[in-house]
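Reading a protein record of the kind used here takes only a little practice. An example makes this concrete, so a full record is given next.
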Amino acid sequence: HFSRGQDPLPIGNPCPILAPAEVRGMASEAYADAAQGIAAERMATEQRPAPSMQDVPMRQYLDTLVVPSLLPGLNAVAEERPENPVEWLAYYLLKNNPMREGAAAAAGAAAQ
């Protein structure tokens, strides 16, 4: 049992289970060839480009690109209660599409 402020591990005595193999003074036995192990470590730690939206899971795709526009539209439909809610929602989504602000304005001007 430790009192407040007292460190459970004395300073200078790192936990040997958590220390990397090099710190413990032992060679890694994960790879028979040390050069292959070093190459694998480098590959595992290098920076990779972020996945495209085609590569992310469906839920993440919807939450990122669809839901932020769709939910306000559904709330507006619920408040307005138009005669044709699907057409009204479609127009709302076209008008409020953050990905195509210029295109939506041009479509609105052409429709008038």
